[in-house]
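Below is the record:
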Amino acid sequence: MQKRVLLKRGKEESLLRFHPWIFSGAIASIEGAPEEGDVVDVYTSDGNWIAAGHIQVGSIAVRVLTFVQEPIDKEFWKKRVAVAYNLRSSLGLTDREDHNIYRLIHGEGDNLPGLVVDVYGRTAVVQAHSVGMHCCRQVIAEAITEVLGSRVVSVYYKSETTLPYKAQSDNSTGYIIGGHLDDVPLEYGLKLPVDWINGQKTGLFIDQRENRALLEKYSKGRSVLNMFCYTGGFSLAALRGGAKLVHSVDSSAKATELTNKGVKDNFPDDNRHKAFAEDAFKFLDNMEEKYDLVILDPPAFAKHRDALKRALIGYRRLNEKALEKIEPGGILFTFSCSQVVTKEQFRMAVFTAAAQAKRSVRILYQLHQPADHPINIFHPEGEYLKGLVLYVE
């Protein structure tokens, strides 16, 4: 029996606008007893085929793979991977001697909802955010290596923290093609410490690449404080930009170890840098050093809508503390990666912080995610990274 989903009357409107999510409340019935992760055909209440996608337990019940009737086979995956790779190639992110880190597939932004693939040298790290993508991990890995050829020869699968917690599936990690390579991950010539086995996400926050490059231009002669440093990408950019000192702060001792390793690999015997394994709010409260360039790049304060109010308070408090302490003429790079926090809400939280800190502030840049993290125009929820560069009088 065909595995199919029948929608309630009128619930196909979002699909007619090519939105890739079908919520559970839009479904009238499910036929053919599909298992979680199976591909299902979706029909309107009038019995017309409209889409096909992965079915899953939860509020987002189907993630749409295609709005065209076509087989979801290996050729489908190869075609989607090829389109994604060609985009990154056109952006100048591939086949460079000084740069070999980029996002190959960005979920809905590449019409593959629930799938993230990052490339580090000749290794691709695959992360599934849906059971359907988890079930397809092997064919996806094969499609990647076949499309990219010698550019990617190892595929590491890492989804133990990203699959829905109710998913009844084996989420084991490890190499599913190839194995460990000695490639050095490079971001515009900087050797970045990447730990895709034990680190957060796929090993690095690639989405801040262009913002790190911008920070480098403002670092010369400045005293830099990099809060929530993780592997220290902003710290390395500041050091190369000519900062007179750089302090990196993270609550994780493992993160500060990776940051120190990155500094040693890129700037051996350089004494301008120091790392602190400490809570960000406590560090800001107690710091005695004066900084005139501060980076605030915290983890998501709100991962779901119920946490939005508390998150906005957190962003306000964090920015207020930084604005109180930054030197006159200082520059603040401040970010939110919380998807449920809009640009307007984040900007208002920062503006409120400036008012309460009694500092005059001007916006130099409004920042966002880079081009290899594209936003599907039919899926505005994909715009998650917000940032401001502020001049503080």
In short: The CA atoms of residues 292 and 330 lie 4 Å apart.
